[in-house]
Amino acid sequence: MSAAPQAAGDHPLHVQLPYDMRPRAGKAIGDVQLQQFVGSATSGKDRGRRQIFAETFGERADEIRRLAGAIKQHTLDHLDWYLDRFIDAAEKAGVLVHLASTAEQANAICVRLAKERGCKLCVKSKSMVTEETELVPRLEAAGIETVETDLGEFIIQLDHDAPSHIVTPMIHKDRTAVGRAFARELGVPYTDDPLKLARIARDHLRQKYRKADLGISGANFLIAETGSIVLCTNEGNGRFCTSAPSTHIAIAGIEKLVPRMEHLGVMLKVLARSATAQPLTCYTHIITGPRGHDTGEHDGPTSLHLILLDNGRTEILREETRELLRCIRCGACLNACPVYRKVGGHSYGSVYSGPIGAVITPLLKGLENYPDLPQATPLCGACHEACPVKIDLPKQLIGLRRRMAERGVTSLWERLGYRAWGLSLRWGWSYRLAASVQRWVLRRLASRAGSPAGGDRIVSRGWLSRGPGPLAGWTSQRDFPTPTATSFREWWKARGGQT
Ligand code: SF4
User: Fold this and answer.
1) Tens digit of each residue's pLDDT (9 = 90 or more) over 260-304
2) Secondary structure (3-state) at 480
3) Residue (of 101, 117, 91, 137) closest to 308 by Cα position
4) Is 389 in the pocket of ligand 1 (CB under 6 A)?
5) What are 481's strand-pairing partners?
6) What pTM was estimated for this model as a whole?
7) Where in the chain is the domain with CATH 3.40.50.10420?
8) Ligand 1 centroid to residue 393 C-alpha, Å
9) How far apart are CA 191 and CA 182, in angstroms?
10) Which of 146, 157, 454, 498 has minimal CB crowding within 10 Å?
11) 328 CB less than 6 Å from ligand 1?
12) CA nearest 122: which of 156, 148, 161, 96?
């Protein structure tokens, strides 16, 4: 998974529905290289995020996150009004705005526009929403060569692979994999020197920028007041894609709006710090309309289109899930999540991975199709703590689990297990009884360790290494501590403590 290119038909995002996450997650856990790449990259980014927030904002770090969350929440609470304002302003600036209800419609509009203009070569900057709509295969099928220009996405494209992280798509690869991909696909001598690799990519992409007649981008933010499209990149490729070709098509989810320019400052501050621990991304483009003929501008596209995409977002806009649309796709929750760190992005079987992916994928694509994802989290709260717009992801995950139970998506055993657990926690006596039974069973297993029948169910110092029944899933990955002879309550009571 970590280094080899994907074979055709083995694309990480082409999964069978309903998606069973376990085989892929199990494979990822056993992949030592993947563990190293993803583990070190995510922990480094998570550390960097904490550090830069503390250095810049000190004790007021939480305040700016609250402010960013409030800006987005306010916009979402009045989304119809801000959408109207934005469309008016964008059209006044010369942008042709198109509305798409579904991914299929968005792709169809894009292909139609490209064909009407006779476009043959498209340069594209990184955009999660176009991954969501699977735009590139549609353009290619329509005979329009499409080149990803973000370095990570470019490498992913050469390998016929799929991004495994919202911000750093090739987090699961290292430079030797890049060197091999370049040698194989671009016919250059193998090197794993990062500078040489960057130069090869630059030379290759410059040729494409010169010849391209279509540029496609996403949008990090849309400003309702001015009708502007905001793009944040670190490589400058966004600038080339949106200014060199004669036609620029931007695609954005309807949730990308912020009311005014003054709000953009807040969002940019939290986005770059949360995504890559930078004070600001290297390039921030604020695009307001195409090239101005009246003002004698020499650069920029002669026609600029924006496709505003719904694709399930208005469904998420209902009150109980609305906060999810505050997401600015910074990836901080992925970096903080202990599950993402172990299983990597492809295990989620979807463009959006990590805690945010575990919630929005089932909402966008059907809970029945992704029943494992809401369970793929320990509910530790690290994602909530990391989120720059304060989305309560654990609460949302629990909400999805509740919906699964209500719709009968969970298995009978799971429902019975949760029912029994719930009952045991309802009264003091039932809790004590359940705890005693559990302790007795586990200690019995431990005591059988010494007997021939006990075999290797237990390792030394009171750790179960191979549990029976449902516990086997747990102990296949880690040992389980056997309980002490006396519970804490008994120990406490024996010392005269109140219970
Ligand atoms: S949910 Fe929050 S932390 Fe996760 S990607 Fe979205 S904004 Fe970033």
Assistant:
1) 999 999 999 999 999 999 999 999 999 999 998 777 888 899 999
2) strand
3) 101
4) yes
5) 463
6) 0.89
7) 22-314
8) 9
9) 9
10) 498
11) yes
12) 148
Dihedral sign computed on CA atoms, order 87, 92, 93, 97: positive
Span from the CA of 147 to the centroid of ligand 1 (angstroms)? 27
Greater confidence, 1 or 252? 252
Q: Is 387 a pocket residue for ligand 1 (Cβ < 6 Å)?
A: yes
The residue nearest atom 8 of ligand 1, judged by CA position, is 330
From its phi and psi, is residue 496 left (phi > 0), alpha (psi between -120 and 50) or beta? Answer: left
Residue in 45, 339, 356 to alter for ligand 1 test, most ligand atoms within 8 A of Cβ? 356
**Per-residue pLDDT reduced to its tens digit, 358-377:** 999 999 999 999 999 999 99
What does the block give as tokens for 201?
A: 């990519």
Q: Does domain 22-314 have CATH number 3.40.50.12370?
A: no
pLDDT value at residue 100: 98
Per the DSSP assignment, residues forming a β-bridge with 148 are 124
360 CB under 6 A from ligand 1? no
pLDDT score for 2: 43
Question: What average pLDDT does the chain have?
Answer: 92
pLDDT value of residue 13: 83
Pairing assessment for the beta strands 214-217 and 247-253 based on DSSP bridges: parallel
Two tokens at 164?
Answer: 């495994």
Ligand 1: does its nearest atom lie under 6 Å from the Cβ of 329?
yes
Q: Which of 76, 232, 329 to mutate to test the pocket of ligand 1 (most atoms within 8 A of CB)?
A: 329
Task: Give the range among 182-186, 434-438, 467-471 with minimum mean pLDDT.
Answer: 467-471
